[in-house]
Recover the amino acids of this structure.
């Protein structure tokens, strides 16, 4: 870690920024539950048969993992700045990469990434009318992301010396995970946008009646 931004400062700043974004996330999560559980434009619960239980499960899992990540970050800062009394101070505690809180934070990140990318693949699958061919490459990228994440966890568990994220054994797997998930997200978002546009402007797509066409139809009916 660079001396200009030591790990101790980075952990505090990271926890602060994550807490802000977590608060924003809670607002959007509430809006998500509102759409999934209640009728449109009214505070009336949907019937059980009308609830998308799959999406509700995914939203719940993402909320649990997001909450765990903030909790693990808080616990790690308490460990380093309050409870750790060994040599090296807080820096030595943060450098213990095999510590269970470090491993659980990484596992939490890998799980969130896998679920989020999986939902993106599902959206692509639905936009292209359940075409298996459109999701073969994204699934391969998703599997590569998951393998990279598992490799990160293995390196963290098996590393016995003090190390940070730029450690040579860990850095290459983190780069792989970031590249795979970035390529997956960008390529699939572009595919979804193109597929949605093609459906909207397709001649087979039902046209939305304009006000002039409605007026013409009404006049014809009266005549």
């Amino acid at each position: 870690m660079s001396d200009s931004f030591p790990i101790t400062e980075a952990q505090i700043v990271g926890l602060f920024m994550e807490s802000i974004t977590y608060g924003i996330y809670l607002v959007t999560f509430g809006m998500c539950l509102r759409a999934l559980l209640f009728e449109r434009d009214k505070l009336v619960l949907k019937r059980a048969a009308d609830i998308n239980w799959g999406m509700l499960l995914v939203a719940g899992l993402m909320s649990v993992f997001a909450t765990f990540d903030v909790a693990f970050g808080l616990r790690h800062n308490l460990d380093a700045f309050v409870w750790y009394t060994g040599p090296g101070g807080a820096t030595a505690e943060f450098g213990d990469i095999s510590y269970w809180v470090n491993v659980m934070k990484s596992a939490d990140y890998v799980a969130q990434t896998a679920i989020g990318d999986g939902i993106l693949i599902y959206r692509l699958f639905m936009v292209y009318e359940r075409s298996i061919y459109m999701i073969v490459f994204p699934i391969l990228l998703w599997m590569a992301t998951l393998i990279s994440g598992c490799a990160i966890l293995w390196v963290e568990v098996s590393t016995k010396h003090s190390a940070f994220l730029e450690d040579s054994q860990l850095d290459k797997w983190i780069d792989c995970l970031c590249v795979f998930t970035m390529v997956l997200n960008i390529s699939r978002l572009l595919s979804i946008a193109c597929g949605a546009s093609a459906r909207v402007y397709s001649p087979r797509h039902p046209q939305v009646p304009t006000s002039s066409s409605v007026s013409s139809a009404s006049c014809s009916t009266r005549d």
About this structure: The mean pLDDT is 85. The chain is about 75% helix and 0% strand.
